[in-house]
Amino acid sequence: MKRKSRGFLAVDILLIILMILPLVTGMVIKVLTTPPSEGVTFSGARVFFTISMPLQDLPITEAQINSWLIMISITALCLYMTHGIKVRPDTKRQLIVEWIVEKAKGLVNDGMGLYFAGFAPFIAATLALSAFSSLVSLCGLFPPTSDLNIVAGWAILVFILITYYKLKCGPVHYLKSFADPPLLTPMNIISEIATPVSMAFRHYGNILSGTVIATLIAAGLQGASRLIFGWLPDPIGEIPFLQMGIPAILSLYFDLFSSLLQAYIFAMLTMIYVSGGFPLELYEKRKQEKAKNKKTKNLEVV
Amino acid sequence: MLELAIGFILGCCALGAGVAMVAGIGPGIGEGNVVAKACEAIGRQPESKGSVTSTMLMGCAIAETTGIYALVIAILLIFVAPNILVNVLLRAIG
Q1: pTM assigned to the model
Q2: Which residues of B touch A206 (CB under 8 A)?
Q3: Domain locations in chain A?
């Protein structure tokens, strides 16, 4: 295998630093700004400062800052993975990247059909952002996905996409789809609005419930270990023995499994809703008719 | 009297949260059914394990929705509602 040049290695190291630095920055911010507290406390995202805006003040919270830090980190990861790709792969990372891209394309082709093949980057980005946002709780940071505002933003984006693809067959068809059985029109409108709401609440509720349960169990274990080992002489009796190890096993489920599962489910639901709302056959029929009309018009002109 | 009123608000919020989480029964039964059927399907056709598993996870997520709604309402009742209600009470008293 050919040795890499010094410049290549330097760029590699720079990108790795750029990948890790945002997480370290987040941890430093968290350590510096967390007030000392006694016992169990739950709090939402901490508001760092507010920017005054004409309609309403814009608070800059921990969730937003962590979300931006994660975005920087993912960008650096992507740049690192795609650094120095060639037609004939000679690095391990290129093989990994090719595997990921092929998997994403296969997932989108299976789930959405060939018309939506261009959606692969969007779905992969959603998956990566969602997964990393939840997994950042492993570093002790506030996971942005346990703030409703962040996830609601993603869900609104998906809702806009759904509506855009439904409107492709013309506004009349879109409005008619609500009155499918005419009596159920209000129900159809409610279920249309419920889509983004349920997507946002599902993701946010799952991550938040994991955090709440993990915190409760950690606090309970502290109390239990004080109860059991409290009779030991002072410096040893103060150590919460039961808190060692047991929360880690729970974190395996709540942080690792649940985060990845929710990211997968969010991406899958995006695919299903966007491709399910789009009547492909009708759209192609319409397109053909339009083309035919154009042709006849052109012939008439000629 | 004011302490009694605030205590009543806090107690009712906690009770409401507890009652809201009764909705956890439904998704529990539903997800149990989903997983049981998925196990049966895998037992009948072991070669379709991958697609059955991914469909099962999707179905579980959809079935979970009502439980998550209840959870969100319970969390709001515990962490958000008491502050707002107590503030409303204090403002009404003046």
Answers
A1: 0.84
A2: 64, 68
A3: 6-27+44-301
